[in-house]
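S.,

As promised, the uridine 5'-triphosphate run. Input:
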Amino acid sequence: MRKPIRKAVLPVAGLGTRFLPATKAVPKEMLTVVDRPILQHVVDEARAAGIEKFIFVTGRNKGVIEDHFDIAYELDDTLRRRGKLQQIEALKADMLPEGAAMFTRQQAPLGLGHAVWCARDLVGREPFALLLPDMVTSAGPRGDQCLAQCVEVYERFGGNVVAVEEVSPEETQYYGIVGIGEDEGHAFEINGMVEKPPKGTAPSNLIISGRYILQPEIFDFLENVEKGFGGEIQLTDGMIELAKRQFFHGVRFDGRSYDCGSKLGFLNANIAFALMREDLGPQLRAELKKLDL
Ligand code: UTP
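Predicted complex:
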């Protein structure tokens, strides 16, 4: 029996510089895809994968994230007095159970690896999920989202799991790349990892995407890794060390991802998610046709 994946780490302490000025006062994770904060979409994906405890690594100016997962007493009261019961129920459904949301702070944005390391005491010594909250995903024909597929592969193989996606060979230099060992198609053994390989040297065109299942030993390596690319503590550098001792599997997940940390990915996500909605899709499709595309 594998240890179950109960906890998820969501690092939300980044500065979101690619999205200024929108992110000057509003955390990028609270920008909306249609009418839900990006972070709520990611929490929904984690809940659907069976996650029970949510560890948010926040920073300064991120207080609204805590407020979002708390009861808004005045709002509830006003909605109740106005008879808006449907909205009250919708807000309730998004709430996490009492005690299920935990917050810690990364005091300086020293990199993703450092943000994950800040969660070490809240995670404890058990395997956990890591979701980068600027990526949202939609399910493919299988019907389950990316993290649920990672958990399934973890249940089969144990060890560590990362979701991967294909990019064109020209783009591999911008990402963390995995090497492919024994390959089943949907899942495969990872036989190497490299962060931002120089052009023409990447072991594959599969990039490490924003969903992971990691063993707690990752914290021991993150504690000791040197600053890497961009002067930041890189998660991939910690994973490269961990991979010398433990298995990693990759998941070519069925579905789509949208990088909401970039303007284009954010716009794509808004259009794609709105088109999927019964209440908005048909009208939006008609409006898009009117644009001179
Ligand atoms: P990104 O590099 O995409 O986020 O990190 P960023 O630094 O906020 O974005 P830009 O490049 O300046 O626009 C991926 C995730 O890791 C978190 C971010 O909040 C984001 O969700 N992160 C990154 C941290 O929590 N701490 C860090 O030091 C760096």
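Residues 53 and 100 are 5 Å apart (CA to CA). The chain is about 35% helix and 25% strand.

- D.
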